[in-house]
Design a protein that fits this description.
The protein has a three-stranded antiparallel β-sheet, covered by helices on one side. By secondary structure, the protein is of the alpha+beta class.
Length: about 140
């Protein structure tokens, strides 16, 4: 399938997907902030201001895996997780758009080919989608 056969909306989504996947570092998972006391009596956490740590939570082979993220890495890891989640949302949108387009085409074809008057008008020729070069692919 070439790009010219896609709708403008689908081409736009696919371009965003390609750019996001090519230009960014991606991390699957979610981020979790944990707070804790260190145990020192003189520390500020003993008075209620707890220490916070960021964890990347991922599932591997059905088991959760949690990685503590160093403070210096936090901005980059947050961005990588956000970019991955954005990529997933775009993939879902492209999938829904493709599915809706395909369903609309199948509905139209079924409607047109089941009407005897329309069949006679087109001399029972097989339908060729508008996006396909004439005769190169038949819609079934």
């Amino acid at each position: 399938m070439n790009r010219t056969s896609l709708s403008p909306a689908e081409r736009d989504f696919r371009s965003k997907l390609a750019q996001l996947a090519h230009d960014n570092w991606l991390l699957r998972g979610s981020l979790s902030v944990r707070t804790r006391k260190c145990g020192k009596a003189s520390c500020h956490c003993a008075k209620g201001e707890l220490h916070a740590s960021l964890y990347l939570v991922q599932s591997h082979d059905g088991k959760p895996r949690q990685l503590c993220i160093p403070k210096l890495w936090e901005p980059r890891v947050r961005q990588a997780v956000n970019d991955y989640q954005q990529l997933q949302r775009l993939i879902e949108e492209v999938s829904e758009l493709s599915s809706a387009t395909r369903e609309a085409g199948l509905y139209l074809t079924a409607t047109l080919t089941s009407d005897p008057g329309i069949q006679a008008a087109v001399n029972c020729r097989p339908m060729v989608p508008a996006w396909s070069p004439a005769g190169s692919r038949k819609l079934t």
